[in-house]
Amino acid sequence: MRQTQTIKLAAGDDAVLLLHGLASSPLEMFSLATSLNQRGFSVEAPHIRGFGFGSDVTDYADWLAQVVAVFDRLKREYRSVSVGGLCIGSVLSLGLANERPREVSALSLLSITLFYDGWSIPWYRFLMPLWFHTPVRHLYSFTEQEPYGIKNAQIRQRIARAMRKGFSEAGAARITMDHVYQATRLSRHVMRNLHNVTAPALVIHAIDDETASPKSAEHVMKHIGSTVKRKVLLGDSYHMITIDNERDAVAWETNSFFQASIGGLRSGALQLPADNDKYTAAAARR
After folding, report:
1. Tens digit of pLDDT for each residue in 245-286?
2. What residues make up the domain containing 190?
3. Is 1 domain-assigned?
4. In a domain, 272, yes or no
5. Can you point out the beta strands (E) in the chain?
6. Residue 196 in contact with residue 91, Cβ under 8 Å?
7. What global pTM score does this model have?
8. Is the distance from CB of 158 to CB of 149 less than 8 angstroms?
């Protein structure tokens, strides 16, 4: 599968739109996409031009416009459309839900990154807003380093080998500062409008996320306008939770939430378990 190839998996009348992370591709959503498809969802994970791998950076408003266009098409084709995203893909998911507040059936926000405050972020990160408004923004790029968002040692080795060639299922080996600048603008836009998002929302975040601490997840839970919301914290993963140790738990939680949300919307009664403040992959198998 090519890095820029859209994933399309047909099944039932309920669809899921999955949004990959910054400077990445639908490959990082492949495991989640196949799992949801096996449980009866039709799934589409598009490559977003100007946001994803292999294309010049565009304005964040263009990213949102592309996502809204795909969502609107799916809404015409399917009975319901739920939306999931990883990292900045989660921020895009919230941006979409703000644009289509009564049409998104449910949200799964995975490793949402509103604040770059994880344990692997270098100390000079706080200087970045100053660089955004200088020529440095167009010249500098960040090189991805170990652990590449992966706690599992074997998977990390595979990712590291692929990164030496420039790209892996976990994303590109380098991310430009222009990408980060537009992602920061998107995050600010989304945070200003969180109260307008009313779709049922599932927030899944690793306690040890090296890119964004659980502060981002907590901010969403506190400020989102959704009356139905659930938080799950993972105890055995890093940032790339769709690939790492607890990917099956992420798929199970997302499927369960989407199914419950769709069923609840039809019956008028939606009941969900309480927030889980520490989850392990073994819990999904019990």
Report:
1. 999 999 999 999 999 999 875 544 555 666 666 555 444 433
2. 7-285
3. no
4. yes
5. 7-9, 14-19, 42-45, 80-86, 107-110, 141-143, 167-168, 171-172, 174-176, 201-206, 229-234, 276-279
6. no
7. 0.87
8. no
